[in-house]
Design brief:
By secondary structure, the protein is mainly beta. The chain has helices at 19-30, 125-129; strands at residues 5-10, 47-52, 61-64, 67-70, 77-80, 83-87, 94-95, 101-108, 114-118, 136-141, 150-153, 166-167, 178-179.
């Protein structure tokens, strides 16, 4: 399958989290002798994002997520029910409160039609027996995406609780502010 996306560096400000702020907060929590006068640490870190290599139509599968399944969330995993997928490309998809994509599960039903369902839907009972293929996590375009445009999704749409919550600065009109997972709200 030809990759429609690529991982490349982005401006750290777009990511929505300032590494210096995160490091300072961690120092405050872990240092029992903290007196409130820590200088902000100097952190030269490159942030990455996932970008479209070609134009992608609304509703089109952007990428099939593959990787290693984990039992606990990390900064780069994507949650699917009780498991967390550590995906080489999926781990670099940045958050936006007005995302270009959604993370869905692709299933094939008894009529051989492909269906797309949200990652948090519990598929049990008779519905499970009607699925004839292995469910596959996919990234699906919410709207038209142009070559060079960043691929994003709303982290609160998949994560119960974020491994590393953060204050969002995506700039969206509908910005949620705190990104901590859907159970946070």
């Amino acid at each position: 399958m030809k990759l429609k996306v690529e991982v490349k560096p982005v401006d750290y400000k777009f990511n929505g989290i300032k590494e210096t702020d995160f490091a300072l907060e961690q120092a405050k929590i872990t240092d029992l002798n903290y007196d409130g006068n820590y200088p902000a640490p100097v952190v030269d870190r490159i942030f990455y994002g996932v970008y479209a290599k070609e134009d992608i139509n609304e509703g089109e599968v952007v990428h099939e997520l593959e990787g290693i399944w984990q039992h606990k969330p990390t900064r780069h995993t994507i949650q699917f029910r009780e498991k967390h997928l550590d995906s080489a490309i999926g781990g670099y998809i940045n958050h936006s409160c007005d995302p270009t994509c959604s993370i869905l599960i692709r299933i094939t039903d008894m009529s051989f039609k492909q269906q797309y369902v949200p990652a948090y839907v519990n598929v049990k009972g008779s519905l499970t027996s009607m699925i004839i293929s292995e469910p596959t996590p996919v990234v699906v375009a919410n709207k038209q995406i142009f070559a060079g445009q960043e691929i994003t999704f709303n982290y609160n749409s998949t994560e119960d609780l974020m491994a590393e919550p953060f204050d969002c600065s995506c700039g969206s009109e509908n910005c949620l502010g705190k990104i901590a997972g859907r159970l946070y709200f």
